[in-house]
# Entry
Amino acid sequence: MQCCSVYLCVCLCENKSLCEMCILELRSCEEQIFEWWYFRKYGTSFIEQVSVSHLRPLLGGVDNSSPSNSSTSNGDTDSSRQNVSECKVWRNPLNLFRGAEYNRYTWVTGREPLTYYDMNLSAQDHQTFFTCDSDHLRPADAIMQKAWRERNPQARISAAHEALVLEDCATAYILLAEEEATTIVEAEKLFKQALKAGEVCYRRSQQVQHHGAQHEAQHRRDTNVLVYIKRRLAMCSRKLGRTREAVKMMRDLMKEFPLLSMFNIHENLLESLLELQAYADVQAVLAKYDDISLPKSATICYTAALLKARAVSDKFSPEAASRRGLNTAEMNAVEAIHRAVEFNPHVPKYLLEMKSLILPPEHVLKRGDSEAIAYAFFHLQHWKRVEGALNLLHCTWEGTFRMIPYPLEKGHLFYPYPICTETADRELLPTVFHEVSVYPKKELPFFILFTAGLCSFTAMLALLTHQFPELMGVFAKAVSILLSACNCSIRTRAILKLHTPAEQQNIPSLGPILGITMNFA
# Structure
């Protein structure tokens, strides 16, 4: 109706000239029509889209214009669930042994490599994997159920010994191998004893698993115990130099229990195959697990980049590549590195030894600093073994951030970088002696900074001239006199350089001419 009234007013105006009110109303009407058209086509307000996408990043804000941030309660619930899943903490597949490795570090340095939050998560994992509701039926399991909840390490070890007095308890052997054994050899012996006890319990519960929910839960617990023991035995073999034996144990374990992907045994297998330099087998594992439907990890992304870089890194030269351009193989390697760096941008600094490594935590946050430390701790040697791989990484990894749209958190090949990563990493990593790596920020070009400073300075001068014209006039005259004096001084020194010291005695008359006083002393 408002638009119709404006049109009627336009038609009735004499000489087809619009009054001022008509012009304002017509412009307002046009803006409303454009806003309505933009909203119908794109589903969002044009003004809101411009302010969120362009103005808020410049002011340092966070882009919250995702579809999940709707005004409905269901939208808020979905957004919160997405944030929780993005910041999910995962068990480190290559976590070290507490007694044989973490405690030895503490004895030597006096530092605690694990945080309370990390150890608390491990205690929750142990209670989830190694306990069930039927533990009260077996005295040894009942003791171990309380032992996993103890905070004092000595109390846990004492409870494990108490459980072994009653019967052969697989979880008791696991606890002693993890926390009491001071060497990998001792841990392997205890795990072998745990394997014997665990296989007996597994076969017993397998026969009665369909007799009820209680028996099914007990069989699921015994399965978790058996898989955990076999995986740790394979890791012991890998640490003791029996890599081929470790690879065989991991392959057999993955074939026997293909559905238990929560342990991420394929990442242990990838590291062992890289140690054997069996790159064809590594590619076969990647072809199976580097799938769009499966969760990614730094191990998968950076191992794929390493294999692509291995094909071209020995002959790669930045100067030659800048002259002739990149060929197909080099382009594939660079794209793989960019993909890996976008997934976890903290890894390159550890691989290039630009930042010092610490012992990896027992839990990692994907795409975070904790995952970068865990990956580089075990895979740095594999990158060094491939000639030129680190050089190619050094020349190309920073180019990733030029491909990601601003702000960087929006992402390019993966989902947006989680905002909560830094907070979770500070809980997982010992910040007392380690500086947590944060997501890099895109730096503005120098030309933009210089232009902004010049405009600000010009605006300030204009404001001061408008407010204090007389004072600024005096200031301008003083500046012009100073500049002229400097100019005369430069001209005089240039003239003196053209004459010898004897000829300079005949030039004192230049001083009054140039308006300055010359001193030849």
Remarks:
- The radius of gyration is 35 Å.
- The chain is about 65% helix and 0% strand.
- The first helix runs from residue 2 to 12.
